[in-house]
Amino acid sequence: MRLFSVGAGASAERAPQEAAEHPSAPIPIVGPGIGESIRVPLGETGLETFPLMLGAAEFGWNVDLETSHGILDRYVEFGGNAVHTADGFSGGRSEHIIGQWLRSRGLRERTLLSVRIGAHADNPGLGSVNLVRAVEGSLTRLGVDRIDVLHLDATLDSTTNLEDTLATVEWLSDAGKVGAVGAFGFAPERLVEARILASAGYPRIQVIDAPYNLIRRQPFEGDLRLVAGAQSLAVTPSHALEHGFLSGRHRRKALTSQGVRGEQLRGHLNRRGIKILRALDQVADELSVPVAAVSIAWLLAQRTVAAPIVNTFATEHVDELMQGAGVTLSRAQLAELTRAGN
């Protein structure tokens, strides 16, 4: 196993073995300092990210402020620099929590902020007026003056004229409020339309956030991946661990949580899901790393994937997740994992 040898070519020296004896212990990095140890290009945006983005979907919902700040602190200790949230996460509370953390730690200039816009109840969709209001609302909650990557969320709005949306993004960009542009919930044909508009001078979509992991292979492994490759889009897969199933912690239906997430987890405990868990167990044993790290490593090995978005409930789980950025899977291991999910 090579630690921190990532497909994009980033690398860093590992400190002596005695410094990290347990597989889930922190992995010290010898380099210029915390937050500067390992970076990969975020497609053609000119931005650089740690190979894992920390998702904040649980902040303010299942994770309180103190625990959220602890998770963010732990992520940064490992050299992480990219945080992903959305205006619709916990009705905006996720953004409030991140904003408080940025101010209290003084880390705004060293943090890549990725924000998904379009699902907040007060400003839904991608119409020009709501888009401007949504961005202003997120900037206020985060306490910042600029969003580094603005993801346009089309899940609630696939009918608004894309030219109008991109014209509004251009205005926001010229005003210094938005950096790179990303997309969530865009059909392949809409991404093609966006690229045609970009050739006419509109802002170019450069990043896509798409649900994708070892058990949820479709619809990404189809036209969406072809378009992403053809347009050199950076892919930041959300649901990287499929609500925790690919961490290996949910193996019995009786022990899964209630509600929608519990139903999803129980739905994966079928023949295919168990086969995937067994393949993950085998590779994890071979490499002496957690199952979650292997799941992340499989994603990082996929074409067009730049940095998976990972969510967690507990500080100690960050240690397992971050190891995924340092696992190099052999061709045989990749093939076995991929076959298990077919």
UniProtKB/TrEMBL annotation:
<dbReference type="InterPro" id="IPR036812">
    <property type="entry name" value="NAD(P)_OxRdtase_dom_sf"/>
</dbReference>
<dbReference type="Pfam" id="PF00248">
    <property type="entry name" value="Aldo_ket_red"/>
</dbReference>
<feature type="domain" description="NADP-dependent oxidoreductase">
    <location>
        <begin position="51"/>
        <end position="339"/>
    </location>
</feature>
<dbReference type="InterPro" id="IPR023210">
    <property type="entry name" value="NADP_OxRdtase_dom"/>
</dbReference>
<feature type="region of interest" description="Disordered">
    <location>
        <begin position="1"/>
        <end position="28"/>
    </location>
</feature>
<dbReference type="InterPro" id="IPR050523">
    <property type="entry name" value="AKR_Detox_Biosynth"/>
</dbReference>
<protein>
    <submittedName>
        <fullName>Aryl-alcohol dehydrogenase-like predicted oxidoreductase</fullName>
    </submittedName>
</protein>
<dbReference type="GO" id="GO:0005829">
    <property type="term" value="C:cytosol"/>
</dbReference>
